[in-house]
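Human: I wish I could look at a protein chain and see how it folds. This is the protein in question:
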Amino acid sequence: MKFTAAQIAGILEGEVVGNPNAEVFKLSKIEEGTEGSLTFLANPKYVNYIYSTNATITIVNSTFEPESELKTTLIKVEDAYQSFSKLLEYYNQVKLMKSGIEQPSVISENVTYGENLYLGSFCYIGKNVVIGKNVKIYPNSFIGDNVTIGDDCIFFAGVRIYSESVIGNNCVIHSGTIIGSDGFGFAPQEDGTYNKVPQIGNVILEDNVEVGSCTTIDRATLGSTIIRKGVKLDNQIQIAHNVEIGENTVIAAQTGVAGSTKIGKSCMIGGQVGIAGHLTIGNNVRVQAQSGIGRNIPDGETLQGSPSFNYSDWNKSYVHFRNLPKIVAELEELKKNKPNS
């Protein structure tokens, strides 16, 4: 797919300096630009590359004035970084602009779906499923019975949505993710075995949620596991049964949240964090990577360590942790030199 400088400038509301008919069909870094590629210059550290780049078109800030002749056509915009991001989003929308039902695929009884549905090959749609408008479901995906999916959602290849799940509008779920699998509920018996506790709740994803690849969100034992509006989950995260995650919270990869824990709004949780069950995490909490949370956390705290404690205290203590062998040696020396009393 090719775009001219004039077309790109129209999308970005920018000004062309150079050849308005210059065409591009790919994207590149400015230092790796080749003929036919589009790049951008936002960081002053890379300004030297604009004089040597072979990129056909370069997006720059409106304040940029070249100091020598350029080979590349410029598109001047208010903010080059934001404009390039906008262009990437536009490019992604065009690339994902598919519709139609590919075969083989299975659509069960009483399924309803809106206009512009894309259903890839080898998909299965269960009974009584409701799908909104402009939904893209890529190949080898499974949608269980009685699932509801809102408008403008994208499910990439190999997504599994178990029965009774509710997905809001503008949600993106990446490959290999499972929504609505059984919660981890087993009752110990006197003979040392475990009986499975039936998990009969569901999962609710509200609007504008994005879930990374190979993440699992378990259905509730009773009621719902709830992921609130605007939540962003990275790859390989485990969300257990009856967890609730507040609006606009972001969680990085390999974090695990145990059952029935409630996480507040606008939290930022780093990678490989472990959060115990039946806790309440407040709003605007920050948790550094590889921390362990085993207690309720009030609003606004920043935590690090395992078990975690206040971030500032942890940093001060870390100085002593590193010096602990030296401190012990000094104490031993003091004990040896202590005069007999």
About this structure: The chain has a mean pLDDT of 94. The chain has two domains: 3-95, 100-314. The longest strand covers residues 37-41. The radius of gyration is 27 Å.
